[in-house]
Amino acid sequence: MILREGKLKKIQSRAVMEHNLDYTISLLTHTPAALNALLRDLPEIWTLRNEGEKTWSAFDVVGHLNYAERANWIPRAKSILQFGETRAFDPFDREGQSREIQGKSLGQLLDEFARLRSENITELRALNLQPKDLERRGLHPSLGVITLSELLATWAAHDLTHLHQISRIMAHQYQDTVGPFSRFLGVLKCAGHSATA
Amino acid sequence: MILREGKLKKIQSRAVMEHNLDYTISLLTHTPAALNALLRDLPEIWTLRNEGEKTWSAFDVVGHLNYAERANWIPRAKSILQFGETRAFDPFDREGQSREIQGKSLGQLLDEFARLRSENITELRALNLQPKDLERRGLHPSLGVITLSELLATWAAHDLTHLHQISRIMAHQYQDTVGPFSRFLGVLKCAGHSATA
């Protein structure tokens, strides 16, 4: 019982003290335009090539971001507000983007990302979350108890992990072309692959 | 002598076969707008914080990119064309951005990056480089013989290594805020730091 209280206290302090929702929303607002400026109309060497068998291209990553906009963040936030810890989130399908990308161009995926993200931020703002709402807890299928604060912070960090991944995938295409300069390029040494969130 | 020819052949094949200069220029053209869309008007938590003592913020990285636009790529390309292997490049000052950033806002640095990059691409195009020019060799102060092709490919990959770094610096600010989700976020596990190029 003491252990349980200790755990509870830890969850509460990590939720309340560090999360300014405006910072999260600001970052979430910037990402679609950043990916659009980086990727739209680039030659396919940069956007359609991956890092080897069973890895993703930048195109695949944008599809994954779109799938997460539909299936992950807002549905899970609503699940926390509605069910709390009494019902675990649906597991997130890490290959869910396969349906998102079928028959689409990168330009279409980038347009969709901008639209879905904008709609979701509107929906997030409409929830009018207060600091004590951010402490509310939900049940992640593999992580166990998490807070709404942690879920929403992860939404922003998930953008960054995939921007990080995209820059690594793109650099990979030039790993031989740069010759001996590869020694200086940290991105070519990165093994920070993301799992599903 | 056989060894030397073997080495020469290796340098030639890595220069000629893999480098399409249009791909490089296309990426170089996209980067300023991508960084602008990502960073401009973000709260300072994302742009001015670093990863700990003696590390860079996103602001510092943009300063470094500006310094490299002035001191690295075009001057070195011209050095190769003018002096070949007879004169080593001036060493690149990894702290050269300290002069670039002094008294400036992030908005000013982003404006400068867009301007410097645009001028440098114009200058690169004016060199009217042909495939055999890309094979030309220069002398790097620590790497030894490198080709013009490798230098120009590194210019593009250097953008990517710093986009990769910026996304990692930004994610670092939320490493505690995401709570247990950190397990899924590869960017929080990345140790792919770049050295000077």
Radius of gyration of chain A: 19 Å
Percent in strands of chain A:
under 5%
**Number of DSSP strand runs of chain A:** 2
- The quaternary organization reads as homodimer
Task: Name the largest protein-protein interface in this structure.
Answer: A-B, 67 and 68 residues
Q: What kind of sheet is the major sheet of chain A?
A: 2 strands, antiparallel
3D architecture notes:
The structure is a homodimer of 197-residue chains. By secondary structure, chain A is mainly alpha-helical. Chain A is built from nine helices and two strands; from the N terminus they run ααααααααββα. Chain A has a two-stranded antiparallel ribbon with strand order 1-2. In chain A, helix 4 packs parallel to helix 5 (73-83). The relative contact order of chain A is 0.16. The interface between A and B is large, with 67 and 68 residues.
Topology overview:
Two copies of one chain form a homodimer.
Chain A: H1 2-16, H2 21-39, H3 44-47, H4 58-71, H5 73-83, H6 97-101, H7 106-126, H8 131-134, E1 137-140, E2 144-147, H9 148-172
Antiparallel strand pairs in A: 1-2
Helix pairs in contact in A: 2-7, 2-9, 4-5, 4-7, 5-9
